[in-house]
Amino acid sequence: MNENAAGAGAATGAVAAPASGGRRTQRERKRATVSRLMDATISAIAEVGYAGTSIGEVCRRSGVSRGGLFRHFDSRLDLVIAAAEEVAARHLATARAWLGGHGGGLREALPMMRERHRDEINIVWFELAVAARSDAGLRDRLAPVADRFYRAISDLGRHVPELAALSDRDRHLLISTVRDLFDGETISRALVPEPGVEADRLTLIAEFAEFFIARRT
Amino acid sequence: MNENAAGAGAATGAVAAPASGGRRTQRERKRATVSRLMDATISAIAEVGYAGTSIGEVCRRSGVSRGGLFRHFDSRLDLVIAAAEEVAARHLATARAWLGGHGGGLREALPMMRERHRDEINIVWFELAVAARSDAGLRDRLAPVADRFYRAISDLGRHVPELAALSDRDRHLLISTVRDLFDGETISRALVPEPGVEADRLTLIAEFAEFFIARRT
DNA sequence: TGACTTAGCGACCGATTGGTCTCTAGGTTG
DNA sequence: CAACCTAGAGACCAATCGGTCGCTAAGTCA
């Protein structure tokens, strides 16, 4: 009868916890609920896909009612676009943190990049990108977000010493190519896993990048 | 009221046309209907995605009734798996025909491969591969088909002179990598098209493939 | 405190989903 | 021709879809 089964357990509601006592401001209440909805939407897309992420599914996972959801998002599309922006931001934040704290060169950055593209966060992104191909409404809303996201990924390459010397154009060519490759690999490996090939491929990509850099500098 | 609007116009029903006169055998009737359903399923997945390819959508496109559809396929999953097998077969047939009639080397084979991966046929395949990630029933049925399909693609490489000398392992590594790259590219370009980058990328892949071949032989 | 606003709930709506069932049309076989 | 079988049609089913609406709960502010 009641869709709200998950409760607040899975949510990161603590983010907007009251500063003191049991009383929360309206701002805090709103933030906490939106945050639970975001987490639920992201995990739903990752686990049951874009098509399976119905309003009911998100309500079930978040413990928020339909009425509560539609208070903060006008439509499913609005919810999903918010999740896409969140997911792009998290992906970049994690990668940036790694590049900042780690002085690593190309041979360390590539496995990091592959790991990022296999993470739940990027799977959600990719799921939305694929759905956008055949859903005009989603595509129109997602395209500008994608444009910024993809550019930001290429810009991150500046923090890798070997790539810093490349022109913007060459660096973007190289990184966008590796990005597409990792995304394609994420799909084929879900269907036909080939751990040996994957290991060899990482070496191959590193050789490819070094070959490319040598030719262009 | 009636879903059957398309009629027989869009179908390739002519394949199973009666040998003479207006009378058809049961075999011919069945073949013609299944063929119309396959074409409708493939075009539907290509245009409205896997999730949008409902039984109703396929019936509308094919002009076959629900009863007629379920006469030949026990479930939507059966229909979709049949379409996947058809799509893999067509992809390979087209590529094989090109490689047979054309003596072309690597520099011609790569654009052909990219074109194949952008074709409606491969988009249908990829749409199913992505859906299979979060749909266990689909994944179980699609995995063996995918295994054969992917292996066949790598085997096609033997017909490209430059790749013939490589070991099976190296050839598979190279071709599966390019395959994943082209599939990933097909998605990102639908959202953020970059014709200039795509042109540069094709050259880049060719140069790298030549570099790889030189190192391994 | 009392008036007002925002957050959140869940019954409800019409449309659509995958699938079933009964019935008719058409081809096959004695 | 009669009996039989497969092909195909479409009304119908329960479940689920995205979204609405009237209501109560909680926070704000005079």
Description:
The structure is a homodimer of 217-residue chains. Chain A has two domains: 13-72, no CATH class; 83-216. Helix content of chain A is 76%, strand content 0%. Chain A has helices spanning 26-52, 55-62, 66-72, 76-101, 106-118, 120-133, 136-156, 161-164, 168-191, 195-216. In chain A, helix 1 crosses helix 6 (120-133). Chain A is elongated, with a radius of gyration of 20 Å. The termini of chain A are far apart. The model of chain A is unreliable at 1-21 (pLDDT under 50). The structure holds a DNA duplex (30 and 30 nucleotides).
Topology:
The structure is a homodimer of 217-residue chains.
Chain A: H1 26-52, H2 55-62, H3 66-72, H4 76-101, H5 106-118, H6 120-133, H7 136-156, H8 161-164, H9 168-191, H10 195-216
The structure holds a DNA duplex (30 and 30 nucleotides).
What are the defining features of this structure?
homodimer, 217 residues, mainly alpha, 2 domains, 10 helices, 76% helix, disordered N terminus, DNA-binding
Count structural domains of chain A. 2
Radius of gyration of chain A: 20 Å
Number of strands of chain A: 0
| Count of separate DSSP helical elements of chain A | 10
- The class by helix and strand makeup of chain A works out as mainly alpha
Order of helices and strands of chain A: HHHHHHHHHH
Q: Give the % helix of chain A.
A: over 70%
Shape of chain A: elongated
Q: In whole angstroms, how far apart are the ends of chain A?
A: 66 Å
The unreliable regions of chain A are 1-21
The overall pLDDT of chain A, averaged over residues, is 91
Assembly state = homodimer
